[in-house]
Amino acid sequence: MLISERIQPSRILDLIGNTPLLRLSGLERDVPGVEIYAKAEWLNPGGSVKDRAAARMVAAGSHLLAQGRVLLDATSGNTGIAYAMLGAADQFPVELCLPANVTVERKRILQAYGATLVLTDPLESSDGAIREARRRFAVHPDRYYYPDQYNNPANWLAHYETTGPEILAQTSGRLTHFVAGLGTTGTFTGVARRLREYNPAIRFVSVQPDSPFHGLEGLKHMDTAIVPGIYDPALADEDLRVGTEESYAMVRRLAREDGLLVGISSGAAALACLRVAERARAGDAVVTIFPDGAAKYLSERFWEERD
């Protein structure tokens, strides 16, 4: 019998989700009695949590993509990489608007998958990319499928249907706090809605930069940014603001104390978890999302700094 007759092949889509939940023992030394966990979302095939939402948004527009339309969206990097990966796997074109100052690693990954890049003013951050994507779609609406990740309910539904249930299963429903950063807000929104249905006593903490001028790629300062249509601020029991430099320091700490090479937004999430855990009670369990790994940020200078 041929190998192809004995083995059922997997597709990229089959590899998305079911990421492990890791215990952050290094951080727990600062808060004896409190457990801290993180979902290792960089183990998705596209390297980030955004694979989940991108897969659902691509599925929602599959009929338009089958007609030859180009997938167009704004991104700070990770959702774009997920789109580009899926486009390469299913052979549909992808055009992405993103700030010109995203890391060189992100640009190279997108180019490797064959995506067309439209680089926007770095001073306008992800908002500039959003405005350019909207402009292009307005000019050529029949050319594009524009999922608009910041306003597409498929974004948060992906986490309501997958990430939330995974967390409940992996913690046996024991978590007391859920912490996540705000970018498109899809992860926080979807997971919080799912977990609140299970246990309204869980405390939900959102995380965002403490300044409109920050270096926390993937996160939005909601007071000054274009606010995503899917964002529901009422879901958070608390909103924590974190700084760029202290998040960089946390990224370095996670590498050295937990052996985890994670991205900048993961450092921000871990920092917020530590603050939450410092006020928690013995026996509490704090869960967060580590959206991506460090591979896309290794060219950043903060790795050379000392704490």
Can you characterise this structure?
With 307 residues, this protein is α/β, with parallel strands linked by helices. It has two domains: 3-44 and 161-304, Rossmann fold; 50-145, Rossmann fold, CATH 3.40.50.1100. It contains eleven helices and ten strands. The chain has helices spanning 3-6, 25-28, 50-60, 62-66, 78-90, 104-113, 125-139, 153-171, 186-198, 244-257, 264-278; strands at residues 21-23, 35-40, 70-74, 94-99, 116-120, 144-145, 177-181, 203-209, 238-242, 285-290. Helix 6 (104-113) links the parallel strand 4 and strand 5. The chain starts with a helix and ends in a 17-residue tail after the last strand. The model has no long low-confidence stretch (mean pLDDT 95).
Could you list some keywords that capture this structure?
six-stranded mixed β-sheet; 2 domains; single chain; four-stranded parallel β-sheet; 11 helices; Rossmann fold; globular; 307 residues; alpha/beta
